Fold these 2 entries.
Entry 1:
Amino acid sequence: MKIKVLGSGAGGGLPQWNCNAINSRDARQGHEFVKPRSQSSIAVSANDKDWLLLNASPDIRQQIFDNKELHPHEDGPVRNSPIQAVMLTNADVDHITGLLCLREGHAFNIYASDRVMSTLNTNSIFSVLNKEKVHRHTISQNEPFDVTGAEGSLGLKVTTFNVPGKIALFLEDASDSKNFGSSEGDTIGVNVEDIATGKNFYYIPGCAELDAPLKERLIGADLLFFDGTLFTNNEMLDQGLLPKTGERMGHMNMSADNGSLAAFKDLNITQKIYIHINNSNPVLRDNSPERKQVEDAGWQVSYDGMEVNL
Ligand code: MLT
Ligand code: MN
């Protein structure tokens, strides 16, 4: 199974359009240690020909251009694409709006929880994806299914599960002081298995907390992509970017006693990779002490175009 990181950044990417903080400024100016990053999404294939996307970012047009695996097949009809299916992990702008670029009458399948699918179903702009060709499959958590595309099985089995998190920002209910109207299915994690080999990995780009059930599930995993939004809970406030903590945004930070570095320390996961990394995060600087700290703790920081084989 081949995995390509199409985008490693969080919402807004790096540089972010209206941000002149140090990471965005340096990325914009071509700093050798601060590479640009598009918004988070990965592509997975068991046969190197048909691909499943995990989330569809607003940068998808450029991501397809940058990854030749996603170019139309040379020997196919004039209209064709290796993208056979898209699985959504939440309804955030950075994860669903790329669907709007996948129009032009191409047939593929969308998979999402009932909560996320209802966001697509109640926003008429998603009708640009002709329902006759683009089939919407509402899937239940903890029920494995065989991913199909317009041309049949992709040889991949997916199991989704709830993770602690939050409803998409634009759907927040301010009157619910507890968690803004969030409910199960708003944020899910995904396990993708290559049916032929049994090899499998986890994709969890948004997660508020490593609770006991999630911890139990991930112990001993071969490969994990995990929420790398922030290094510290307060960094967006400290940099004057947004008056919100990671906690408020539904993202677990890396550092501190309650961070992911500490939480994953003894879970015996072979390969741990951060993704959905916000433009404020100092690990985005290749030579920063924070980058060294996460690498010393056994984590990799994903980058656009990264390839992992399992
Ligand atoms: C998030 O990951 O918290 C969201 O993408 C935030 C947003 O929509 O800007
Ligand atoms: Mn996001």
Entry 2:
Amino acid sequence: MKFQRLEDAIPKKNALKGKTALVRVDFNVPRNKDGSISDDTRLQAAVPTIKALQTAGAKIILLSHYGRPKGKADPKLSLEFIVPALVEAIEDEVSFSEKLSEPLISTMEPGDVLLIENTRFNEMETKGDRGMAENLAKHADIFVMDAFSAAHRNHASSAVVGEILPAYAGLAMERELDHVSQVLDNPKSPVMGVVGGAKVSSKIDLLESLVSKLDILVIGGGMANTFLFAQGHNVGASLCENDLKDKALEILKAAKKAKCKILLPVDVVTAKEFAANAKHKQCAIDDVKAKDMILDCGTATVETIMKAMDSAKTLIWNGPLGAFEMTPFDTSTVEAAKYAAKLTKAGKLISVAGGGDTVAALKHAGAADDFTFVSTAGGAFLEWMEGKPLPGVEILKNKTK
Ligand code: AMP
């Protein structure tokens, strides 16, 4: 996919000397109860772009949301807590301000970094207000979008400001876009998808989009039960959205028409209670009893999935194949993820995963590091897979500002 990259804004050394860059990052990091940062992945992701802009001589203004303050200042959701961690990460000073102002910028030197308070303290942010975006844009020369995880929102600081200023993808955003487009826009075929998770209802758009694009689609997790039910199998006491029976049949029909092979579980692991280490058994899909709950795919299903992976060149994965938070119902997710990681490591498969619980499931399997790419973006990754245009990406395609 073609889009404007940070490198386009910095054709030569010091290209941004005397210029100001507004940089949208995602510092919405998870924290422990004592306030400390429990996972600094998002913070670290922003560092290469900040450093590149420092080297280019720009004054750097960082914008991010944090939590859901509902449009007014909430001290508990102030972004100031991130400053010490950011100072450590970039090994340089960072200033903090509640508001952006001309006098403040005029005191900045090339390479200085200023973090602005939580963008969502302004109620206009989530409304995608043009006035708020103009107030931000008037202080800067370029906009750098480096928060793929916020790219599906048409918010003032992540999309609208990029309609006003020349907009470039930051380095973290570039990596995300290059990888997701590698698997969906121009993939090496055969292309295989694995979609799991709890419910069909949250992934209808996704399934509809994927069946038109993929050669093979594995449907696992709780959502597979709805498809099995629709096909006339007894799913006992399993999580199942009976009212989506017709939708499930429609998706299967669309898959057939598009020549996308659907793989549903042929055997399953069941228990009578939804609990770790609950008494369980494995059985063929036609042997599920009224009080059984399907909590994982069985060994024959995993073998079929692995065989399909052997035949694929590209894999896209969203959602676990079973209730992976509870042993032993993590087994099929772990085995299939490990196998995909092994094929990827051997150079036989391009594997990209993301959205919701997927990162946690792949980390749990010890497979995340060997995937080609694991996106930390939830909603944005899903909407991308659904084939929807993302406002924070569309602004990077327009060169006429
Ligand atoms: P999602 O956020 O839609 O990707 O769903 C992830 C959740 O689906 C995880 O918490 C899993 O425990 C849950 N899940 C996966 N398979 C099943 C299943 N067979 N029955 C109930 N929950 C499941």
